[in-house]
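Risk register update: the risk of archive-format incompatibility is retired. Evidence:
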Amino acid sequence: MIKILGPRLPFPKKNLQKSLEDFISGKDFKTGPIFYYLVNDDDLLEINKRFLNHYDLTDIITFDYSDKEILSGEIFISLERVKDNATKLKIPFEEELLRVMAHGILHLMGLKDNTKIEKKRMRREEEKAIRFLLENVSRGTKS
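Archived output:
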């Protein structure tokens, strides 16, 4: 079960939730409870300080509660960072939001992004996820 909590999105939430679940199942994982919290910079900075002892802004923080192939976690996303990143990258907000949402799921699947090689693999997987999600979110079903 995926739940998206926060303000209105440019996609129907139910369709996005279903598309994310389809993406997960397509990667041979099962969906446990996954909660997305769409917040502002201040809220995410506070979480970053409190739980990770980091004092800088970020676009996403993922808490992984997965058990083997059953993905579970809490994913906090700053919509302000997503908007700023989209502007800097000159891409639509919707695309950047899907990238960040997929990024959290990929972390739950065990992908890391600490080294150059890991970052390159993460970006490649994000691109695949974005294409899948863009194609499926408008329909709300798997093709």
